[in-house]
Design brief:
three-stranded antiparallel beta sheet
Length: 186
């Protein structure tokens, strides 16, 4: 059985909700433990499907004392951004977890290339374009940007071996039982 577009879309839709994102993070405990409040996990994160960031670039003009600041909205090649936030103060915290769901017809290098391209984008000064109900939050760049790969049982062994060998954190989603399980803890 191979991964279908429907399988991918189902997981993306599931992880868009706070409860779905929390269920995913529970399967990889080092990231679940990054949530600021176990008692208020739904208020401890913001999910952004197919996220967009505003990248700032500073160019020096004729006058080096007055740099020109240029911004550009860019869609990140990840599937979901999970931003941690303080449930009491309603402010974004320093940790961002980026979810990469294995897409149909995607091979190991394609999957890793999406993470690498995201790293290139986020190496600059940026801010998140927040959901409408969270636009009041400060959304500047983070100190910690972490990837989490979600693959399927039907994902090729080459991808599983590559993720494991490269030391990337990933969870395996079962299409049959609709449960997520940890394959590796790196």
């Amino acid at each position: 059985m191979s991964v279908t577009k429907s399988d991918y879309e189902t997981l993306l839709a599931e992880y868009c909700s706070s409860l779905g994102a929390i269920a995913l993070l529970r399967q990889y405990s080092p990231y679940f433990e990054m949530l600021p409040s176990i008692h208020q996990p739904e208020q401890s994160l913001i999910t952004i499907p197919l996220p967009i960031v505003r990248i700032r670039r500073s160019d020096l003009q004729l006058d080096p004392l007055k740099p020109k600041i240029e911004t550009r909205a860019t869609r990140l090649p990840c599937d979901l951004g999970i931003l941690t936030c303080d449930p009491q103060w309603q402010i974004k915290l320093d940790t961002e977890i980026l979810i990469f769901i294995h897409r149909p017809e995607e091979d190991f290098s394609d999957l890793i290339d999406r993470w690498r391209q995201t790293q290139v984008y986020l190496d600059r000064d940026y801010e998140w374009l927040m959901p409408a109900n969270k636009q009041h939050m400060f959304s500047e760049a983070a100190g910690q940007v972490r990837p989490l790969f979600v693959i399927f049982e039907a994902t090729s062994d080459r991808i599983k071996q590559g993720l494991s060998g490269a030391g990337f954190p990933f969870v395996v989603h079962s299409l049959v039982t609709n449960e997520v399980g940890i394959l590796t803890d790196v």
